[in-house]
Amino acid sequence: MDIFQLLFNGLAVGSIIALAAIGLTLTLGILRISNFAHGDLMTLGGYLAFFFNSLGLNLWLAILIGALATVLLILISEFLIWQPMRERKASSTTLTVISIGLALFIRNSILLFWGGNNQRYNIPLMQAISLGNLKIEASRVLVIFLALAIVVALHFMLQKTKMGKAMRAVADNIDLAGVSGINVKAVILWTWLCTGIITAFSGSLYGLIVGALRPDMGWFLIMPIFAAVILGGIGNPYGAVAGGIIIGIAQEVSIIWLGSNYKLAVALVIMIVILLFRPQGLFKGA
Question: pTM for this structure?
């Protein structure tokens, strides 16, 4: 396959992984949760967008409403699960096991409501533009630019707003942030809000570029997402973006030598190498 086509495809997939990794690294850095339900929340966002789109809503409006519905469900899980666990001083191992259980619950709920068949958005097919051997699909270009816009918006929020500065303070030291007058509970809710919207958007956009939604797609993406977070530095959203792009491109380019069946193994190998030789990641994490 043409190397430029693989690079382009890798950039599009990497943009999705980068968005999802931002949500996960915020959860890890601020909430101290290794959330293995993150990939299934991506899937849920995509399926909710599909549901509203199937009712006749414009795709982008359906994606927005699906993201808000995902946030609502995440906030419910915060009050029913995560907040009580924090109050009980639950260990990180306990929180990880709970997140795996939540992932199974979400995935099986999707199977219950929508079945195991692939689902597709109700949108017209768009012809790819040919530039020599390179096929440029409008959906992939759109995903890349949307991901860039979301990253820019997140940067502005983290660097220029009072809440963004509070989030960075909580990520550095949650106890010190609390005694200095920062409303930690508000920061936690805002973190879930940001995480939910970005995660749901990434799941919806992934369904757009691959052409279909699958109940297990988030589960198979969780390894590349964790690899991107670790590669970029845990708790560092900018590192998560870089890590996501690197993982996405590495996975696609590896097809030349390994075939498509071993793409996930590439993310795993990168994660292992980083943990062995530079566990802090390429950039400074929280």
Answer: 0.89
